[in-house]
Amino acid sequence: MSIDKKCQGCGVKLQTSDITKLGYVLDMNHDLCKDCFNLKHYHKVKDGIDTASMPVIEENALVVYVLSVNHISERLKYRLDRHFYGSEFILVINHIDTLEQSVNLNRMIHKLREETNRLQMKWLDIVPVSAKTGKYVNELIETLAYFQRNRNIYLVGYQNSGKSTLFQKIAQTNNIDVSVLAGKKPGLTQDLFDIPFGTKKLFDTPGIYLEGSIAEYYPFEIYKDLIVEQKIKPTIFQLNESQSVIIGAQAIFSFLKGGFKGISFHFNKSVSLHRTKYENAYELFDKHKGSLFKPYNETHTYVKQTFKLNQDTKYEITISDIGVIHIKGDAIIEMYYLKGLRLTLTESLY
Ligand SMILES: Nc1nc2c(ncn2[C@@H]2O[C@H](COP(=O)(O)OP(=O)(O)OP(=O)(O)O)[C@@H](O)[C@H]2O)c(=O)[nH]1
Ligand SMILES: [Mg+2]
Description:
Largest sheet: 6 strands, mixed
Shape: globular
Number of helices: 7
Distance between the termini: 58 Å
CATH class of the largest domain: Alpha Beta
CATH superfamily of the largest domain: P-loop containing nucleotide triphosphate hydrolases
Helix content: 10-25%
Bound molecules: guanosine-5'-triphosphate, magnesium ion
């Protein structure tokens, strides 16, 4: 007789037959699969991303859409508010501890509200939090309790948005022990986890795959230092037309037209920012890729795109989960970046 047993770290079904497949354990007495064991005890993560889509949840739930500020430009990719039949929705903006002190959260929420009103998206509330530091988590718990109305609550969102970290924090606040693991590998959680909450339950769910993540290009040991997870002190370059900034080996930003501007780059310290003349940029990059401009992989290819930015609008160029560039129009810019890497140009929310 075989007994189904789930890994307590990620929720995958445990198995003893194939070491190369998910859920492997030496014997069924173990509670963590091989991957979660390595993560928990050695901070080692297996490469490769699970491309899961929407989690399956019951009808008439209270859905908490956990959106990291790292993914804020992707907020409308899926209309989650239409996806889960009969449910109501709360929007949680996570990772706010990574934003600069000067960011006005109220203004950001106001802009999000305006946008969602325009699109007739119905959020019961929009709550900013830091799952990591616990900031505003008590306020969120109060909001959830207020809107729960005898329903199960589900934390839903992109991979790496911080659902499991938030789940742990809420559990901890209520003195409940949970085993689910959190970490920088996108797609860590593989199945539902639950704790009692109010009259019913709170569920953590597997994240929704967001393509073009930096984790698709490098092994964990490299991409873990590129993903934004701590407060970023932006670098502001005063650029003239025809100047470029080489961003690690991931991208080249070129300011083609627009006079003289202060342009801010929000990247981890581990990503080098190298300013140069546009006419030299590509040659310089080719010459020093792999040495000055890292991490470089010779199998990677790049694409080039030009954008026209309108006057009186502040823009945000988001390069996957590694950083953002803020620039005011009007301007013409060129972006050269890893083919397939997620790159978005949106109006800035802050
Ligand atoms: N700075 C910061 N980091 C956070 C915050 N919340 C989560 N993280 C980090 O983000 C990474 C991903 O967190 P998880 O909680 O595993 O994300 P998830 O949404 O459960 O991811 P999947 O299970 O893959 O869907 C981890 O390294 C966390 O430490 C936050 O509020 N601030
Ligand atoms: Mg998770």
